[in-house]
């Protein structure tokens, strides 16, 4: 009798809606610590926007040298991101972050003690390599540790910390701006060594990526990490099964240490990605690289790096006042990236991205209009100055709520396991090259076609980006990393594939529900379920 009651309770509970999984605090802590590496890039971007004012005065360099100094770090970071994929596959994601921190620490000290332009450029090279390592490995690690239910939230952490680093750089500019010119910029750059120390220490508290552990044959260690970072033990088992399948390990193999089938060599990975990709891989590569290109081509680094110049063109002449305005930019950017982290797994990637980019187009057009009016006016137009400042703040807010975090979330989750490290490295390389081109040409572009026309150009590129995203990028919210391949391969016809998958899941769910009902009653025509309270 008692057994029948328990069965009836179980059957009634089967009809209850699934409970929303609790936030996994351990996974949050892991991604938080890993994302500290992104502060390195953010701080450098923010601090250079103000430090360059004093470097130009102290070292007496030209505008072209300023552009090169500001933007060259992005080019140098290519060496780091190119090496990071292979390094992270060799020594693991965790210790690759230590390498990134150590290299950036050395670069920050070299820049702080630089006495000549050439010395400063060498420091930029070393720091750039460290930034390249950090940019590649942090999103990969967070994607591989995060459970599917909160992967968007957690994988956006690197972008959150980039923004926090930018804000720290802006605050550093204001804090040291009152020092003598020859000391101010050196303190601004040298203090950047501090975050890298915290990063190196924090790695000691982090587990290794479960996917990397499986690729090394360490199933026992991977299982323990997944049990801690998943929403349930059942999810941990499913994640482990997916990773084993992707790594070519038999499903029945459950030893703690196993022999992993020989993986494709580096040449085969490049062949599969670039030279002879399948339609699925080609679609993934185009979207993964395209989103990185458009993130930077839409002009974000021009606004963030040269915001003092923009405010000067808008009519704010005092160095200190311009630096204070940049702090406002940093605060707005950081606040809105925090908003975005909580919306990614609720609203989905596509709605946020398309809204963000559409708003960026509008704000860039209005900013360009305001700057053009000020440029052609002989008197001070307060309304135009207010418009320019408001549009700079609106632009960075809209960027931070979609384009900024989703670039890193999306590109890190769509590549298959066997191609993920290399694919993300390519995306980061394109991101840094595009950023370098934008930051190393802005001043020359402003002189050649005016600052207003430059922002009209960025607005046009952002409009092209909106069309690209709308046409080619499927929604990935809630999908496991190993399910992504089913959404790609049809390019602009991906919506049809998504509808088919949705119908298939709906059919499977209905079949399962019908099976539960039949198993739960001996004679459905004669019996009604007894609800036990």
UniProtKB/TrEMBL annotation:
Q: According to its UniProt record, which protein family does this protein belong to?
A: Belongs to the major facilitator superfamily. Sugar transporter (TC 2.A.1.1) family. Belongs to the major facilitator superfamily. Phosphate:H(+) symporter (TC 2.A.1.9) family.
Q: Where in the cell is it found?
A: Membrane
- Name-wise, this protein is Major facilitator superfamily (MFS) profile domain-containing protein
Instruction: Provide GO CC annotations from the record.
Output: membrane
- Mind telling me which InterPro entries this protein's record contains? MFS_dom, MFS_sugar_transport-like, MFS_trans_sf, Myo-inositol_Transporter, PLT1-6, Sugar/inositol_transpt, Sugar_transporter_CS
Main subcellular localization, coarse class? membrane
Topology of this chain in the membrane = Multi-pass membrane protein
Q: Region Disordered: start and end of each range? A: 505-533
Q: Give start-end positions of Polar residues composition bias.
A: 512-525
Q: Which GO molecular function annotation, any one, does this entry have?
A: carbohydrate:proton symporter activity
